[in-house]
Automatic annotation (TrEMBL):
The keyword Nucleotide-binding does not apply. The lineage of its organism: Bacteria, Pseudomonadati, Spirochaetota, Spirochaetia, Leptospirales. Residues 26-261 form the NADP-dependent oxidoreductase domain. The keyword NADP applies. Transmembrane segments: none annotated. Belongs to the aldo/keto reductase family. This is 2,5-diketo-D-gluconic acid reductase. It comes from the Bacteria. It comes from Leptospira kobayashii. PROSITE patterns: ALDOKETO_REDUCTASE_1, ALDOKETO_REDUCTASE_2, ALDOKETO_REDUCTASE_3. Keywords: NADP, Oxidoreductase. CDD domains: AKR_AKR1-5-like.
Amino acid sequence: MTALANLQSRIPTNQSVSVPVFGLGVWKSKPKECYAAVISALEVGYRHIDTAAIYGNESEVGQAIRDSKIPRSEIFLVTKLWNADQGYDSALKAIDRSLENLNTDYVDMYLIHFPVTEKRNESWKALEEIKKSGKAKSIGVSNFMIPHLEELLKEASIVPAMNQVEYHPFLNNNELFHYCESKGILVEAYSPLAHGKKIDDERVAILAKKYNKTNAQILLRWGLQKGMVLIPKSVKKERIRENADVFDFQINEADMMEIETWDEDYRTCWDPTTVE
């Protein structure tokens, strides 16, 4: 089990940066609500914000960070290279657009959003240059499965710092998790609440009652104790606060092992396993 002190606890990566273990995802957050959500999260104590070029809200994320008056150096900011911009030259241009939208000189991590066939390796070469330039302090990938990672690592000069994938007790890909662990790649869970589609599962409710926590908090705490970084998405201040209230209890080993049995390969987003 991973011992975690608070919302701003960090996990080290293989690229000399450490990632706040808990962040705010802003996928599908409309501009105005995205701005308000980031402000709320930063007020609660979040220091990790995850956006992407395709989300269309990089500008609002950047504005909220500036308006929060929290020093930029204290915030771990992530954005991603979209599929249409993959390739060497286009990726180098894409990071500049993202930095302009975010109104910042650098991001703390830049990710390839999806393993686009025949373009992902060229994109990675560009990300290595982006890291060397200082425009990204670290680089990683998203939605990469083991075959994609194996292919990448054959050519890469830099091992990805992180692999951001859909991960929750109902999509518990231990083979991928342990592979990443063996390569020193941190796993970050997006949609750690399975978009709420399993939040009322009776097994979750039983544990929530046992630990006097909400169903969502049980799912999130499981991910934290497993050793992942989590970026649950919400635009409601009370939910943003509730999601973060997971550092004052620990799920015991027997219950952690019980949750491990809930896997049913339940995807709520992309299925990158079908990508050649």
